[in-house]
Amino acid sequence: MRTTPLFLVVPGGRSNPLDPDGATTNDLARNTVLVMDTTLASLRVWPLWQKARHLAVSGVHEDSATGARAEEFCQTLARGLGNKCAISRELWLATELQAASLRAIAAAEAAAADLVIVSVHHAETLPDEVKRWLDLWLKPKRRRPAVLLALFDPLYLGSSAAIQSYLQNAAQRGHREFLARTEEKPFD
After folding, report:
1. What is the CATH number of the domain that holds 129?
2. Which helix (H) or strand (E) holds 181?
């Protein structure tokens, strides 16, 4: 599966908005136009999400940096869906899932969510508590579609191929759609 950004901020006033050469971080921060990447628009659930008044997001992250990445994605998704769709989110720190009782609560929240996020750093494998949480999440049968989204560090920091493959297989086992997003290298 190809890893690609799900959203692209288009710098205002550029003759080629898809070419960020010369853009500074401040330029990108001031941009207000959002172009939806075809990856997100190709999801089977996207038309449903666009009509929804509420979208539930649940997820797990490793630390404050990966938690901020998940929060940022949720904010971008909210802007993409507009004001008519409220997004509720429950994000869990991976270490909290070591306790069986908290893992069960987090899995129940994920089972009710439309979007489940796993935001992690590069590694060979996921922490065991996250794997057990995923297994609990996948057990109940779903009546409505859900998406598993993996958020990773920039590629120049390493590879998450093994984790991405594991998550993709988990999504397939649970009949969920799967997307992966790798942060882009910041502009110099």
Report:
1. 3.40.50.360
2. strand 177-182
